[in-house]
Amino acid sequence: MKIGTIDLGEHPVFLAPMEDVTDISFRLMCKRFGADMVYTEFVSSDALIRSVSKTQQKLVVAEDERPVAIQIYGKDVDAMVEAARICEAARPNILDINFGCPVKKVAGKGAGAGMLRNIPLMLQITKEVVKAVNIPVTVKTRLGWDADNKIIVDLAEQLQDCGIAALSIHGRTRAQMYTGEADWTLIGDVKNNPRMYIPIIGNGDVTSAEICRQCFSECGVDGVMIGRGSIGRPWIFREVKHYLNTGELLPDEPFDWYIDILKQQVLQSVERLDERRGILHIRRHLAATPLFKGITDFKQTRVAMLRAATVEELFHIMDSIPEKFGIIR
Ligand SMILES: Cc1cc2nc3c(=O)[nH]c(=O)nc-3n(C[C@H](O)[C@H](O)[C@H](O)COP(=O)(O)O)c2cc1C
Fold it and tell me: Which of 105, 168, 228 to mutate to test the pocket of ligand 1 (most atoms within 8 A of CB)?
């Protein structure tokens, strides 16, 4: 699969853009485990053109994570064009436009998935952004606004006509937010539309190597994007890529192998922010990791882990888990 001239190989697997999750250290870690392409957190075009420094920091990309896309959102054509140019100067490989964010503070104001209620404006923004930059522009969106407006098959054609180089589709409507199950049938319908020639990247509820392979084989998508399944589990990309390449499931690693990765995440987060904010930031990953699922009577240890205020305290708890719960290291 190719986006513009960027060759992503066969069956590429992408790390989804996630606010407050896909910072530079997490992207590098997922890349290390085999993610074929990574995305920044979404960047507000309005904040970018006002030079808000926290937003500008989100544009920093590393050589080792390439190919990388910077994702922007907004509802104003001029602001989006200007933001697109600012992003291009930060030298990502791709610029992605977010037309899928369902949260009130974004969609409620008409940006993100809110644009699914104003298709003419969505198309105008897309066309102008494509014109404004020299790197490939891609779009990420949802099936439609709600169950009565699943417009993605027609919309995909219209977006393609605006000149985008690939389209990512999360198989939910805006109204669904993150509830229910992602519907991949419509993603498959977009892919099977003979008018479509740009790559289609499917997204939604991919949490294992087997599900990922099924998405490729049953929907025929060109790429699969993984979001929540990677939180607290960046090694999912290693499992998925191994299965796609060999048809065999990767055997489990020793418990300490996984603990060591989570500890690396803690240290990177603390280094990037500071001890207090770094630990706060990484709690989401520690809370989501499947590593501790199924351990009997783990609740108290989990609470202690999520309350730990220093790296020393946190690592002490993490290191004590195998002995406390009789887990082979
Ligand atoms: C915490 C969180 C933050 C997200 N932030 C973004 C974002 O900045 N841009 C975006 O396009 N999607 C964002 N999403 C949506 C994901 O990219 C993805 O489309 C969605 O989670 C469905 O995929 P999944 O089932 O693999 O998680 C976010 C999702 C989560 C859970």
Answer: 228
**Which two structure tokens, joined as six digits, stand for 223?**
């790429």
Pairing of strands 2-3, 6-7: antiparallel
What pTM, to 2 d.p., does this model score? 0.98
Condensed to tens digits (0 to 9), the pLDDT of residues 87-126 reads 999 999 999 999 999 999 999 999 999 999 999 999 999 9
> In this structure, what token pair is assigned to residue 302?
């989990």
Query: Which residues have C-beta atoms less than 6 Å from ligand 1?
Result: 16-19, 21, 41-42, 71, 98, 100-101, 140, 170, 203-206, 226-229
Question: What contacts 63, CB < 8 A, 6 or more positions away?
Answer: none
What end-to-end distance do the CA atoms of the chain give, in Å? 40
188/205 Cα distance (integer angstroms)? 15
Question: Rounded to whole angstroms, how far apart are CA atoms 267 and 245?
Answer: 32
Give every CB contact of residue 311 below 8 A, 6+ residues apart in sequence: 266, 267, 270, 275, 279
Q: What are the tokens at 289?
A: 């990791």
Examine residue 67 and say whether the peptide bond preceding it is cis (omega within 30 degrees of 0).
yes
State pLDDT tens for residues 244-273. 999 999 999 999 999 999 999 999 999 999
